[in-house]
Design a protein that fits this description.
The complex is a heterodimer.
Chain A lengths: L9 E5 L5 E5 H4 L3 H13 L10 E4 L5 H18 L6 H14 L2 H14 L2 H16 L9 H8 L1
Parallel strand pairs in A: 1-3
Antiparallel strand pairs in A: 1-2
Chain B lengths: L18 H9 L3 H8 L3 H10 L5 E4 L6 H4 L11 E5 L8 H4 L6 E5 L7 H9 L5 E5 L11 H10 L5 E7 L5 H8 L8 E6 L2 H8 L22 E6 L4 H10 L5 E6 L13 H6 L8 E6 L13 H8 L7 E5 L6 H10 L5 E5 L21 E5 L6 H7 L7 E3 L8 H7 L7 E3 L23 E3 L9 H6 L10 E3 L8 H10 L5 E3 L8 H8 L15 E3 L9 H4 L11 E3 L6 H10 L4 E3 L26 H7 L3 H18 L1
Parallel strand pairs in B: 1-2, 2-3, 3-4, 4-5, 5-6, 6-7, 7-8, 8-9, 9-10, 10-11, 11-12, 12-13, 13-14, 14-15, 15-16, 16-17, 17-18, 18-19, 19-20
Helix pairs in contact in B: 1-3, 2-3, 6-7, 7-8, 8-9, 9-10, 12-13, 14-15, 17-18
The chains are: A mainly alpha, B alpha/beta.
């Protein structure tokens, strides 16, 4: 049986609310959790004839909206894995833009999603920016560490 | 960790996140961010305290914490691998909490209040150390280091690979010195010393190749595996250079800097013969020989083109070279270096008073791909040289400070360098008309730009450089010593909304309170920051700064400011009050340069006024050559006799 090698194999992601999202396999595999799920399936389905059938990955804890956002990030960063040349400045600017456009509540959910789906670089990016939202609520950034002591006592 | 069943919009705020996730997030932040987050609410506070007992990295160099502040941040932590602390406010009592036994990398700066006990305690407690950097240990009066402290350090840290001691290590009797350094770990490959006399260096390394006459016991090799050596000495001498070359056979990086107190005599100086001795095995990849004018106007009088020719002979593998104070070398010498070192990517010359455009005339014919070029105080250079240099499209750093004859033509050539990250044009002849050449190619990749002392520039230079695009990566801008720069320029700068981290406007007579007000109210990004991103602001000696400005330097304005330069005579009380109300702000009133990192380490030790000619140049022009020539001839005779 010949395997049809399509250069861009698509994966279907099914979210909590039943909606589906189609992404390239390489993009989806940025999430280590999805990657493991696909590879486990591959092992199990070794003897299945029809290799063209798209994998469907069920993500029962993530809503469609958050999943879309996460995949948007993965899509932009997929080149890094394939060792293609990346323009660092542009990528950084895009990352900052991405974070700024995310509102506070989506940010929390996106953090949880990044943790759950195990997307290390997204988790890092969000971590570094998470508290800017927090401190912009009128609290002064870089408070005296003296206050840290006061909280302790 | 139990995830909520729905990662849905129920999550309104971060402190509702599961604690394991919060901990993960906090571990990705640096220490100062962790502290500021911890102070916002009890949930984060608890989380921060929890993670402080297992974070692997503790870096706190920007501010100097006191003991009370530091103590709660450093519980015993068996996972701590890397620590970097500014110890400006600490002393021996901090040793207990700082020296965690699991450390592999330790960097402590500004340790003036510590005694030599610090060294011995490191040797005793941090046995796993791979990399150690200590700055200014025991420099305060009344503190002392003893040779036994160094001995305990070197014999205790048996895995040490890199050692940096940025202070004077000549605190012992010389015969003890070699014995102690013989105890250093075999794995030591990189050594940097803040100050040591050249005689001590010679005596230290001589045992490596001289056979002991009286004893039959084989002398152990001192520092046998050193690849990188960086020393600041009193005089670079032929003897010392020869000893280093012969004694350290694995050397790939050699960095020597001296600062003579008196005019060196022929036996205590670097001559052409010395240059012949360097790099005997041809293994050197990086070479730096600099004579600094810290105490005396002097240069390498006994080195001329012949010396460089002899040096270039063995330098086929050289990747980086820095020659400072070689005022007798002409184009021939420099050109030979360029043509002999086919893998060269970093070229730095300082005080190249006889270096002209001819050196770079046919640089495009070589296969060189230079990435860092620094030609400081090479006053004979003109735009032609820059045009030729610009054929190196991979240039990342271009430092042409004090090359007075460079003008807009140079800027046109520089406009083709789209990978440029650092551009320093201090003291050049550029005008507002030349700056648009940097758009759009160069300005969209530049991170550091300095036009200090380019007297022809006016307010228009800002609009010439920045056409309203705020997505520029520029972080550091130096507009000091510009007599025509006024508040209007700062208004334009603020409007451009570039998220600058460092802004220097020293000695600009027309810059005043309005600039401070404008900068304070600068909104870099309305959605996220309330206040601008400046970490460093230098307004030393700006004509229009009055007490009014200080109202705008208080919190909550300039929330990220760490360094501030003002003129102390404005009102001492106000300045002191500001410094007290902002304990993490370093206020400087005496005109010293600000910032933890400078572009180059001390090529000049005096402030530039740009009104007079460089004093060294003046002195050179007055013709000190007569007395030098005799010695020069003598040195050449000696060199000939040796061949």
């Amino acid at each position: 049986m010949f395997r049809t090698m399509s250069s861009k194999k698509m994966i279907t992601l099914k979210s909590l609310d039943g909606q589906t999202l189609e992404v390239e396999e390489a993009v989806a595999k940025k999430s280590l959790m999805i990657k493991n799920m696909i590879e486990d399936d591959d092992v199990m389905d070794d003897d299945v004839e029809d290799d063209d059938e798209d994998h469907v990955v069920h993500l029962r804890k993530v809503t469609h909206k958050v999943l879309e956002k996460a995949m948007e990030y993965c899509k932009r960063h997929v080149d890094e894995d394939e060792n293609k040349v990346v323009n660092e400045n542009e990528l950084k600017a895009w990352d900052q833009d991405f974070v700024v456009k995310t509102d506070k509540s989506t940010l929390c959910n996106l953090l949880l999603a990044a943790y759950y789906l195990n997307i290390e670089s997204l988790l890092l990016l969000l971590s570094k920016n998470a508290f800017h939202h927090k401190t912009s609520e009128g609290k002064k950034p870089m408070e005296d560490m003296r206050i840290l002591l006061e909280c302790q006592q | 960790m139990s995830l909520p069943n729905e990662i849905a919009t129920a999550m309104e705020s971060l402190d509702q996140l599961p604690s394991a996730l919060l901990a993960t997030i906090l571990t990705k932040l640096d220490v100062s961010s962790i502290c500021s987050v911890a102070s916002t609410c009890t949930v984060f506070n608890a989380c921060a305290h929890h993670i402080l007992s297992f974070i692997p990295t503790f870096h706190l160099l920007g501010t100097a914490p006191s003991m009370e502040l530091l103590r709660p941040l450093l519980p015993p932590n068996p996972w701590m691998k890397s620590m970097k602390v500014n110890c400006g406010r600490l002393d021996d009592s901090a040793i207990q909490i700082l020296l965690q036994p699991s450390l592999q990398e330790l960097c402590m700066l500004n340790c003036a209040d510590f005694s030599g006990k610090l060294l011995s305690e490191i040797g005793g407690r941090c046995k796993d150390l791979r990399s150690l950097c200590l700055g200014s240990v025991a420099e305060k009066r009344g503190r002392a280091i003893h040779i036994s402290d160094l001995e305990e350090l070197l014999s205790g840290c048996t895995h040490l690979e890199a050692l940096v001691l940025m202070f004077d290590v000549s605190f012992s009797m010389r015969h003890d010195f070699a014995r102690v350094w013989a105890l250093a770990s075999d794995k030591l490959t990189s050594l940097e010393i803040g100050y040591i006399s050249s005689v001590m260096v010679t005596e230290l390394l001589s045992p490596n190749f001289e056979f002991p006459q009286s004893t039959s016991r084989v002398q152990p090799s001192i520092l046998p595996n050193i690849h990188k050596l960086s020393l600041s000495v009193d005089y670079i001498t032929d003897t010392m250079v020869g000893t280093i070359s012969k004694g350290l056979t694995c050397l790939t990086h050699l960095d020597l800097r001296d600062a003579p107190l008196i005019e060196p005599r022929v036996t205590f100086d670097l001559t052409n013969s010395g240059l012949q001795l360097i790099n005997q095995q041809g293994k050197l990849k990086h070479l730096s020989l600099v004579r600094s004018q810290e105490f005396l106007f002097t240069y390498f009088k006994r080195v001329n083109d012949l010396g460089l020719l002899l040096l270039a002979d063995k330098c086929a593998n050289l990747e980086s070279i820095f020659l400072g104070g070689f005022c007798r070398v002409t184009d021939t010498g420099f050109k030979t270096i360029l043509h002999s070192c086919s893998t060269l990517y970093k070229l730095r010359v300082s005080h190249g008073t006889q270096l002209t455009d001819l050196v770079f005339h046919d640089i495009s014919a070589t296969s060189l791909s230079l990435t860092h070029v620094s030609l400081r105080r090479c006053t004979l250079l003109t735009n032609h040289a820059v045009t030729n240099l610009a054929s190196n499209k991979n240039l990342k750093v271009l430092d042409l400070r004090d090359c007075r004859n460079l003008g807009d033509g140079a800027l046109r050539a520089i406009g083709n360098l789209h990978n440029l990250k650092t551009l320093l044009l201090d003291g050049s002849d550029i005008t507002d008309m030349g700056l648009p050449y940097l758009r759009p190619g160069v300005i969209s990749s530049l991170i550091t730009l300095s036009v200090r002392g380019c007297k022809k520039l006016t307010d228009k230079c800002i609009s010439a450089l920045f056409d309203g695009s705020s997505k520029l990566p520029l972080q550091e801008l130096d507009l000091s010593n510009l007599p025509n720069l006024s508040d209007n320029a700062v208004i334009l700068l603020a409007k451009s909304r570039i998220p600058l981290l460092e802004l220097r406007m020293r000695q600009c007579p027309l810059v005043g309170d309005t600039s401070v007000v404008v900068l304070a109210s600068m909104l870099v990004d309305e959605e996220r920051w309330h206040g601008n991103s400046l970490r460093l602001l230098d307004l030393f000696n700006c004509g229009g700064i009055t007490q009014r400005s200080f109202r705008w330097l208080k919190k909550p304005y300039f929330p990220r400011l760490r360094w501030l330069g003002v003129t102390g005579c404005v009102n001492r009380d106000i300045v002191d009050a500001l410094a007290r109300s902002r304990p993490f702000l370093h206020v400087s009133c005496h005109g010293e340069e600000l910032g933890a990192e400078q572009w180059d380490t001390g090529d000049d030790f005096h402030m530039h006024d740009y009104d007079e000619m460089d004093e060294l140049e003046q002195w050179l022009q007055e013709g000190d050559y007569e007395s030098g020539d005799e010695e020069m001839a003598e040195a050449e005779n000696v060199a000939e006799a040796m061949e």
